[in-house]
From TrEMBL:
It is found in: Cytoplasm; Nucleus. InterPro entries: Elp5, P-loop_NTPase. Keywords: Coiled coil, Cytoplasm, Nucleus, tRNA processing. Belongs to the ELP5 family. This is Elongator complex protein 5.
Amino acid sequence: MARVPGADTHTRSRSLLQLQKLLNLRDAVSPLTLVLDSLEQTARPLISEVVTRAKMAKTKVVFLSFATLKKPRDVDVFVRATGRDLRTVRNELVAHYPVFDPTQGRDKPAQRAVVIVDSLNNLASTDPGSLAAFLSSIVTPAVSIVSVYHTDVPVILPRAFNEYEPHPFTILCHLATAILRLSSLQQEIERQKARNRALQEPEWGLKEGREGAIIGLRTNNSKDEDHGGVTIDMELRRRSGRTVSEKFILIPAVGPMIAPGRISLLSDHPMFAARGGADGAAGEPDEAPESTFNLGLTEKQRRDREGIVLPYFDAQTDIGGGEGGRILYEMGREDDFDDEEDEI
């Protein structure tokens, strides 16, 4: 099958553009983004990246706190929601939403905003029945929601919760227009090394099955460019119903300057690059298989093979009278002639 020149480059560029638009909150590509993190890889680097890009685009940042005590840096509005009525929280959020400019049209706001929810686990445990209604009520054409859900934190459902209703996490995955699953780049590299050597993949955190205190991702002073990298498994659900899935690497920016991080495809990393070239081809079509001996023929061997007369070659020609399938056999001196076999 012929490969279209530049098709791989176009696909890679389009995938990167989708994540760029998602993080930049452009064109309302995802009204509700669900970020799945764990103790091994928190959502802090990704949330910082969203806040940084929002400040560069002059987008208003509203932080809805269920577990955070202090106002994070570069956040415009900090709203506490712990222990408060959801209606009161919604009214306070809506009061900080940007207003529409009548001179630019009814559907074009003067400013966009993003609401960052630090943890949906608390809301899923205290009031799972109001989870879907609350999230739907705070989404507007001018506001995007980026919510965090901790996959390794158990959700304790109240006794009044109907056991036949779907789990809050199932509801969140159904409502979300984009799901970002985060993992540590260093741990993914270790898993890939084990797969390359056909070994069992290492596990961390709860999956280790060890007793005692759980220690999250340890930080070190390594100067490796992969240090601090985050692997993003993106599942973007477009309006047409088609799902775009791709894996990326986010390297957060380091320094006092406000700058976005570096984003690349996971397949571009040397550890995860496909073998056989950049285009994914396993090799040239005419390339001979590797072997300890030569599978080819010399010119003399080829001529000798063409001059060999195969046994019963005369039976392949038409003798006439429908006897083309007759076998002709000439007896040799070592053959023992048997009259009975000849009669048969």
